[in-house]
Write a structure and sequence with these properties.
There is one protein chain. The chain is an alpha+beta fold. About 35% of the residues lie in helices and about 25% in strands. It binds flavin-adenine dinucleotide. The site of flavin-adenine dinucleotide has 35 residues, from helix 1 and helix 9. Flavin-adenine dinucleotide binds near residues 31, 45, 155 and 298. InterPro entries: FAD-bd, FAD/NAD-bd_sf, RIFMO-like.
């Protein structure tokens, strides 16, 4: 099958790119490993940055989002029994997050593509991206081959596109944190009023709003933990313990969906381009969920690449596309820096999730907690530290094409 742009992966990056290019009159084909229903129901991220929502609005990609997304501009830190309120939107000049589950954005984008007569090929895993430095790179699947002018790998960190990069580029720079996060969608009796971050001797915990009756719960667990070791009662007990300082602000958890363990690692490829292959989203960089950057970065990559490809294909201007790798690496590292800083703030060394036992009376651990409390105070009080944090959290004003 001949096309101008072949895209591997129908996540936020591949779908945003696909819609943008089609609307500009560029032929696009998307192949996706999973069946349609699995893609449309996969719950992952949920916090969209203001600039990303503005971009989606300006390009007519935010029809349902405009009606259903809920604005959030506050997160509370829980530390040493205190709850410190942080109105970050106020500190970031009014920029907010919008709570809109990733699977809903994905559904909207898939429906837009279907309406344009270019539904992704679902259930069609690519086995390889080949000939990336030739004139006609190809995406090879079991039942079809895409012969393209340009291939975009938007198939996540474990997809096949990254493997088509030279060995010294594809692994890039990475780090593995010593702990993981257990993640579980909790059914709640009322919405979580804001993001809650708890720093606790038993380990970090967070509760993040998703929908009126769903919240995402994160619990720090030892590295490579098996989620099977976390039955519902243990999750409930640890959530209660670590989030206790939220007091009556915590909704009642009525049920849990199956828990999963998130391996806490971060990585950025050395260059998100090789010949006529470009990488976007998680294929080019993975972040921990700390700071809610992954989906936003994926959409920002797609927006940049769409603009660059349109200028290349329609105006014959190669300059924006040539600058794509450098711009995206810069923004990926900016996001990594924020996410890593927040993660280090929120995790105490030697946190011990032991059940039932009282928290350790370890003076070093207490000292660390006291330092975190002071850092958080510095964030929430008026001053440059909080303002810088607020801007980083809600999204840097980095370049995103209008
Ligand atoms: P993906 O969404 O991973 O899409 C890649 C697609 O490629 C998938 O559909 C996959 O099936 C497909 N694919 C893979 N291999 C192949 C192949 N060989 N052939 C064809 N298709 C293939 N980010 C935030 O911004 N905020 C958050 O709050 C947040 N919370 C998260 C919570 C969880 C539990 C998880 C797991 C992630 C979270 N993230 C968050 C990260 C966010 O979900 C990702 O960064 C985002 O999905 C990246 O989008 P993408 O399009 O690059 O990749």
């Amino acid at each position: 099958l001949r096309t101008q742009v072949g895209i591997v992966g129908a996540g936020p990056a591949g779908l945003v790119l696909g819609v943008m290019l089609l609307r500009a009159g560029i032929d696009v084909r998307i192949v996706e490993r999973l069946p349609r229903e699995a893609v449309l129901t996969r719950a992952r991220a949920g916090l969209l940055e203001d600039r990303v929502v503005r971009f989606l609005h300006e390009h007519g990609l935010a029809g349902r989002l405009a009606k259903e997304a809920v604005r959030h501009g506050r997160c509370d830190f829980l530390c040493l029994g205190r709850r410190l309120r942080f109105d970050y939107a106020e500190r970031a000049g009014g920029a907010h997050h919008w709570v809109y589950p990733q699977q809903e954005l994905v559904r909207d984008l898939v429906e837009l593509l279907e309406a344009e007569g270019r539904a992704p090929y679902f259930g069609q895993p690519a086995s390889a991206v080949v000939d990336t430095t030739g004139r006609r790179p190809r995406v090879e699947c079991a039942d079809l081959v895409l012969e393209c002018d340009v291939v975009v790998g938007a198939d996540g960190w474990h997809g096949v596109s990254r493997r088509a990069l030279p060995a010294d580029v594809r692994d890039g720079v990475w780090q593995r944190y010593p702990h993981d996060w257990l993640t579980v969608l909790a059914e709640v009796d009322r919405p979580v009023e804001c993001v809650l971050y708890a720093i606790h001797e038993r380990g970090f915990a967070a509760m993040v709003p998703r929908t009126e009756h769903l919240a995402r719960l994160y619990l720090q667990v030892p590295g490579d933990e098996d989620p099977a070791r976390w039955p519902e009662e243990r999750i409930r007990e640890q959530a209660r313990l670590r989030l206790a300082a939220a007091g009556s602000g915590l909704p009642r958890i009525t049920a849990f969906r199956p828990a999963d363990a998130l391996r806490m690692r971060s990585a950025v490829v050395s260059a998100p381009r090789h010949g006529r292959l470009f990488l976007a989203g998680d294929a080019a960089h993975i972040l921990t969920p700390c700071g809610a950057k992954g989906m936003n970065l994926a959409v920002a990559d797609a927006a940049d690449l769409a603009d660059s490809l349109v200028r290349q294909f329609l105006d014959g201007d190669p300059v924006p596309l040539a600058g794509y790798p450098e711009r995206r690496l810069h923004e990926a590292w900016r996001a990594q820096e924020f996410s890593d800083g927040l993660l280090r703030l929120l995790h105490l060394p030697h946190a011990d999730p032991a059940d039932g036992r009282p928290a350790p009376a370890d003076p070093a651990s207490r000292f660390e907690a006291q330092l975190r409390l002071e850092r958080i105070r510095r964030l929430v009080e008026p001053g440059p530290a909080g303002t810088a944090f607020a801007h980083g959290y809600v999204g840097s004003p980095a370049w995103l094409p209008a």
